[in-house]
Amino acid sequence: MALITKIREKSGVAAAAIAISLVLFLVGSDIFQGKSSLFGSNSQEVGEIAGESIMIQDFQKKVEEATQNYTAQTGKGPSEQEASMIRDQVWNQLILDIAYKKEFDALGLKVSDEELIDMVQGNNIHPSVRQQFTNPQTGQFDKMFVVQFLKNLKTLPVEQQQAWDRFEKSISQDRIRAKYENLLRMSNYVTQAEAAKDYQAQTAKFNSKFLFVPFFSIADSSIKVQDSQLEEYLAKHKDEFKGTNTRSIQYVTFPVIPTKQDTVEFYNSIKKLAKDLAVAQNDSAFAMLNSDVRTPYLVSYSEIPESVKPQLATFQVGGIYGPFKNGLTYSIYKYGGVKKDTLFTMRASHILIAPANKSDSAKAQARTRAEGILAQIKGGASFETLAQMNGMDGTAQQGGDLGYFKNNGGMAKSFEKALFGYNGAGLMPGVVETEFGFHVVKVTEAKTNTSYKLAAINKNIAPSQATMDKVFTTADAFANANGNLASFEVALKKDRNLIMMRADRLTENAASVNNLTNAREIVRWAFDDNTSVGDGSKKVFEQDSQYIVAYVTGKSDKDNVKVEDFRLELTALVRNQLKGEMIAKKLENKKGSLEQIAQAYGAGALVETVQDVTLASGMLNTAGPDAIALGRIAGLKNGKRSKVFVGDNGVYIAEKLSGAPAPALADYSPYKNQIQMMNTQRSSFYINEAIKENANIVDKRYKFY
Predict the structure, then answer these.
(1) Beta pairing partners, 350
(2) What is the distance between the alpha carbons of residues 587 and 580, in angstroms, rounded to a whole number?
């Protein structure tokens, strides 16, 4: 019985593993808008896969079966987020059963009965079977255990036999999909010419001097872009702008804020809880039972709220302290003393200097730079300022602050060893080397393994029902009085206390709207066939502690791409195109050195020099990684100057000072292998994308969930 329960659980894991390989179908996938809606239509089609219609009744039945399996495995029903994941898994399984199967059948791929037997109890055991029947005492797979289990299978309850059937189906599908992907993957061959080209791109270097006029040197406001120009650009670049079904909305919120009377009643309840906590025999259990937000009883100093830390030194064992306010949460504490932990906690800031590459010379340059920064700080310079100026990771803008961390492997091993081997606080005397580079480190709070016993009752202040009803009445009156976008805009001008929020390009399956989580009701309304651009919701949506009235301001259609769908992107591209033409015209026919031409051009023109640039990872100083410019410069003969040309980021006149192809190799195998490995890593994605496109998947789940 225990084994079949485990098999049932693992069959779900195997199915989930298959579903994971199909995540690419959902991430960034094209979603097709249906012609009907749950609201105001009788259509029961939840989608279409490879020409096969999926009806909501059939889909929901599979969802309910999967939900029952989930509940049996976990002992609890799924949350809203988990329910959404279950629906995704069922949808992915349908894609596998229909779209993938059509591809398998077209190639004659299958898993025979004999092969399935071999996978379960033969000479080529599937990894999932091997995992299930591994002896926990010896850690060894036991084939006889499989055979014995199968002999007794018919004596088990029907639902357990069904669990085994699902498990066999999942490993069979896993095998046939592996056959299909391997077949396509092995058809990919990297030629020596491709490998040689990649080698040259990574190895061949050139030196160049160029005049660069960036697009940003001309103010955007000085360039007027016409709609006709946007239309023309879109028509020429249709493949670059893929349409999607989206909705844009504006909305106004009516927050439900506790009144003064609500606050008085809340404080009275907090005081009573404080008295009860003081005399509770098991204070930690009492605190847990009475908290809206549960927190551990034993906490490190870093885990204590900032509002509590200044008073921590005054706490007496057995004392009650608070309430402390954090947003709408109030906390009271019963202090139980301290305890030494096995882990240490500390806080530090750092300045990371990363080498440009893995060469010894690059590492030496990075170390020298880091040691120079350390010397400046020792001389009195501000650590935080130098971190902002020099730091090469995400902490730079925070002055290098890493926050609190423990010696539990969360940091790089060498970094952790150096810092937790340091006693006290302050600037560490030398730089710390890790695989990421060289770190200048300041310990802002010394390491400690002291933990604090704090029984915390955390209560969220909430408005009363009377307060909620009053705000709802206000929101409802607003919705009824302003039923369309035009009247909404008038209302906004009249009442400056109303705050309008905007959410652009919501997709059909979006679960949130800006910071509004679980906002599916709003999204479904926006995509309803009976909802048009300019319509107001005419109803009030409830979201956490606020009420919302929404208006549709725009829509896009997958099959009808318009300028308005990509106005910002198109405007930026056309504007740069016009700037490029203006700059190029001004530079044409100018003679002399690059410096002389730059001086004649005027403000905005730069002359820069780059050395040892490669096509694979080239940077052109101010111009950055401009692919067009890199290609044009690399293609010049040594000592030659280009004509004026427009790149990705501006306009150029370039001179190739020197450069030579990398010497030919006798063996390009390392580069062939590198390309082959990258192709292999990407193959599943490309296969998924190809099958998805060929299957013409229409996902209408958004109409029902």
Answers:
(1) 441
(2) 11
Task: Note the helical H segments in 482-618.
Answer: 485-494, 520-527, 567-587, 594-601
pTM: 0.57
d(CA 91, CA 695): 14
Please name every residue paired with 404 in a beta bridge, in sequence order, or none if there are none: 347
Number of helices (H), then strands (E), in the chain:
23, 18
Q: Which helix (H) or strand (E) holds 372?
A: helix 360-378
CA atoms of 496 and 487, how far apart (whole Å): 15
pLDDT recorded at residue 634: 93
Burial of 121 (0-12, 13-18, 19+ CB in 10 A): middle
The secondary structure of 303-347 as a DSSP string is GS-TTTGGGGGG--TT-EEEEEEETTEEEEEEEEEEEEEEEEEEE
* Residue segments in the chain with a per-residue pLDDT below the cut of 70: 1-42
> Closest Cα partner for 524 from 86, 489, 539, 546?
539
In angstroms, the Cα distances linking 686 to 18, 97, 286, 683, 689 are 16, 19, 55, 5, 5
- Torsion angle of C-alpha atoms 147, 149, 150, 152, degrees rounded to 10: 130
Q: In Å, what is the CA distance from 438 to each residue of 384, 391, 418, 421, 704?
A: 17, 10, 12, 17, 54
Phi and psi, residue 420, nearest 5°: -80, -5
pLDDT digits (tens, 9 = 90+) for 19-37: 434 333 333 333 333 333 3
Copy the structure tokens of residue 182: 């391997």
In order, the DSSP letters of 436-450 are TEEEEEEEEEEEEEE
- The encoded tokens of residue 537 equal 């919701």
For residue 10, the model assigns a pLDDT of 43
Question: Which three-class secondary structure state does DSSP give residue 113?
Answer: helix
Instruction: List, for residues 328-344, the tens digit of each pLDDT value.
Output: 789 999 999 999 988 89
Where does residue 570 rank: exposed (0-12), middle (13-18), buried (19+ CB within 10 A)? buried
656 bridge partner residues: 208
Residue 38: its pLDDT value, please? 34
Alpha carbon distance 61, 59 (integer Å): 5
Distance CA 74, CA 407 (A): 33
